Amino acid sequence: MLVLGGLAGFVLLVYVAVVLGGGVLIGHTSSPHVGLSVLATAVVALGFEPVQSWLEDVVSQLVRAGRLSPYDVLSRFSAALTSTYANEELPVRMAKVLADGTGAAGAQVWLVVDDRLTLAASWPPGAGSAVGAPGAGSVPGRRELPVRQAGDLLGVLAIQERDDVPLSPVEERLFAGLADQAGLVLRGARLRAELGRRFQELSTRAEELRISRQRLVDAQDAERRRLERDIHDGAQQHLVALAVNLRLAHTLAGRSPERADRLIAAQGPAATATIDTLISLSRGIYPSLLVDEGLVAALRTAISTSPVPVELHEVGTGRYSAEIEAAAYFCVLEALQNAAKHSSARSIRVELRGDPDRLTAIVGDDGSGIDPRTTASGAGLANMRDRVEAVGGTLTIETAPGRGTIVEARLPCLHIPDRQKG
User: Fold this and answer.
1) Quick one: average pLDDT of 205-230?
2) Roughly what angle, to the nearest 10 degrees, separates helices 322-342 and 236-255?
3) What pLDDT, on a 0 to 100 scale, did the predictor assign at position 219?
């Protein structure tokens, strides 16, 4: 009505200005001049459309607070669908058009992704908390419309009306019109969301595979180092004993042939035990006796072939975890090997003490000892320390020239009384 009134005023103004005003100027006031009437008609015809557009803009500013008419909103939204906007920007454009066209306090575009509603865009930015999620309950001034295409629910358009300013019938029709046109946009947005989620899943899986491969490589390296260490600590001890006993037999061959024969005969079982140990270690398995009967039984068998007399004492020991028993076993074997090879010891004492939260293994010899300040730590000591510290234990070595060596390994652990033989 305002636009029509403005146009009527425009026609009247042109008639008064051109016909009446022009007649006064040319001295023709008795009746309208035909020429001036034709001129006024031409001016009205030429200026009618520009004036109409201007009046519509003015009325839009006054009545709709600067908002576009519903027709213009739908036209601009249709143009946006075919414009050069990036596909990921279309939900945002839709939310903005929806909020601007209806004058709502906020608007949201929700997508159905994996059967769940996901917020795709909101306008103004950050309006999500003001509008809320679809189906969140009865909220005054909240409007929702589902968006469907070929019977498939693609999403929901939601707006929050301003306080005491409900949607007019025209704005409600605009809301419905936008929902009708939104199907194509939401279908594309849902496909992009699903592709993005799938890409994220594949990226996560690729990272998990990379970490898994790294763990396998690390495990293989660790197993190789463990096997090398076990061969050094276990089988090499038997081989050292064989070498020492064979040298002793060679020495005795001249002055005590019978004793030499007995010593050589005893090396057959020792060689068999060495072969069995190598086979077990090559398969990555600890000595079967250690697994089946525990630390004390395994050590009794191991020290039986020592070239130096070994005395074993144990107090309060039982069964422990495989890691603890292996650490104690190979640590003791390494200490026995070092004593036999380097200390010229005449006797060795091995002591095992079991407490509720600790297993202590002590190996002491009466050999020559070493000076830690001048003697470099060899691979044997490093292996012992690595084994003990790997299970959270501590290793100490007390030695001095001429006073022997004491190696003490303290391993934190829980006693396992129900791990019995068999």
Assistant:
1) 72
2) 30
3) 59
